[in-house]
Amino acid sequence: MATRDEILAAAQRHLNIDPRASMAVLAAAAGVGRATLHRHFASRDDLLHELGTRSLDRWEQSLDAADARGVAASGDAGRIRACLTDLFARYLADSDDFGFALTDSYLTSAPDLMTRSDRLAEREVELLSAAQAAGVLRDDVSSRWLTHAVYGLLVAAREAVREGDVARRDLDALVLSTFLKGASS
Amino acid sequence: MATRDEILAAAQRHLNIDPRASMAVLAAAAGVGRATLHRHFASRDDLLHELGTRSLDRWEQSLDAADARGVAASGDAGRIRACLTDLFARYLADSDDFGFALTDSYLTSAPDLMTRSDRLAEREVELLSAAQAAGVLRDDVSSRWLTHAVYGLLVAAREAVREGDVARRDLDALVLSTFLKGASS
DNA sequence: GCGAGTTGAGACATTCATGTCTCACGTGAG
DNA sequence: CTCACGTGAGACATGAATGTCTCAACTCGC
Fold first, then answer.
1. What b/e sequence results for B83-108 when a residue is b if at least 16 CB atoms lie within 10 Å of its CB, and e otherwise?
2. Is the predicted pLDDT of residue A180 greater than 90, yes or no?
3. Chain A residue with minimal CA distance to B182?
4. Is the CB of residue B122 less than 8 Å away from at least one CB of chain A?
5. DSSP for B63-89?
6. Helix, strand, or coil here: B49?
């Protein structure tokens, strides 16, 4: 009954609550026997690797969909601004599903996921660098730091929603505005 | 030879590298036998609880040292600004030692640590609220969100230094400036 | 030098997650 | 109906981490 994708989705959902959940718990969460779970994923690492891959897929799709490369190449301030808005919205949507991937330590232990993650981060650096060159973002700080700041705000956003301090519908504008304008009045 | 504090310090250092390190590994890292480690800390939870407590101690000390409450009560914009600068520097110093506590999931599973953490967060909310009232920080977003943003930037800072993207000596100014002014030019 | 106290090494039992395997059951296609 | 297939439940072996215990060695104060 439960397809592989449904199992993955359930595991994802549950790992967002408890990142240390055991295979038995994840199987139960998917409404599936432990044996069945192992039929789909030989090992726990397999499962995490698949989830990690999917989260990177989403990240990559977001960059593609926002045409980060093309926008960066254009150097057009307006387009860059729109692209950043778009990207934040996409990231925040993804973090609903893959939030646990933001801080889970498994990802950093899988070399192939790490190198791929580094490549994607590099694409982001390109965009932010272009944004600096176009005068959209300040250029007195490194673009690499700005990518870290983006990441940090995503973690903050996830936490804020989890604790009920921010309504999901306000989140996009809140995070973007905080990133761009900061907290000063 | 190794005092309890030295063991704690070593464990802290090592958990910053590998948050899942076993008791055996932590004992070795402290240059101490596994039995000795257990003499000081009955269980792994004990050890983590102690480290969690210490990280909250540091947080509290930072708030005290910066006189967050007094400054908030004063409502003086200049003092509030100075206090924020001071606080960020203290937090960043602490995150060198207790960085792992930022994202480790153990802390959220210890109820007493959580309630204490909530109380400290509340003190921070008071300060940021006062900052908003004094016109230091924007008041079109909730002060609670601002505390999350502070937290997120600390995570980002830790990550940036770990990956060598930011020099430690630049960090204080960088983080504060990003928090206050954002990334926009 | 001696004795009390502490330590490290290691043996041990226990618990828990993991991964494999078997088997009975149910369902759907033929 | 029946047979093939996927599934769930559960047994099983394994490995890792944990916590306890003992003992020999070492150190420090006397």
1. bbebbbbbbbebbebbbbbbbbebbe
2. yes
3. A182
4. no
5. HHHTTHHHHHHHT-HHHHHHHHHHHHH
6. helix
Q: Which residue is nearest to nucleotide D27 (CA to C1')?
A: B1
Distance CA B96, CA B92 (A): 7
Are B144 and B125 in contact, with CB atoms under 8 Å apart? Answer: yes
Query: Among the listed ranges B68-77, B96-105, B129-138, B158-167, which one has the minimum average pLDDT value?
Result: B96-105
**CATH code for the domain of B4:** 1.10.10
Token pair of A61, please? 């799709």
Residues A88, A176 within the same domain: yes
B141 chain-A contacts, CB cut-off 8 A: 174, 177-178, 183
Residue whose Cα is closest to the C1' of C17? A22
- CATH label of the domain that carries residue B69: 1.10.357
CA-wise closest residue to A4 among A30, A34, A35 = A30
pLDDT at B1 over 60: no
Query: Helical H runs in chain B?
Result: 4-17, 23-29, 34-40, 44-65, 68-74, 77-103, 111-133, 143-162, 168-181
Which structural domain, as residue segments, surrounds residue B106? 45-181
B10 with B58, same domain?
no
Q: Cβ–Cβ of A184/B138 closer than 8 Å?
A: yes
Q: What is the pLDDT of residue A105?
A: 79
pLDDT at position B37 over 90: yes
- Tell whether B23 and B51 lie within a shared domain: no
Quote the pLDDT of residue A91.
97
How many CA atoms does the CB half-sphere of A88 hold within 13 Å? 25
- Give yes or no for A118 touching B (CB within 8 A): no
CB A178 within 8 A of CB B153: no
Residues A57 and A33 in one domain: no
Q: Are residues B109 and B136 in the same domain?
A: yes
| This prediction's pTM | 0.93
Q: How far apart are CA A173 and CA B107, in angstroms?
A: 30
Radius of gyration of chain B (CA): 18
Residue B2 has pLDDT above 80, yes or no: no
Q: List the structure tokens of B49.
A: 């609880």
| A36 beta carbon to strand D: under 7 Å | yes
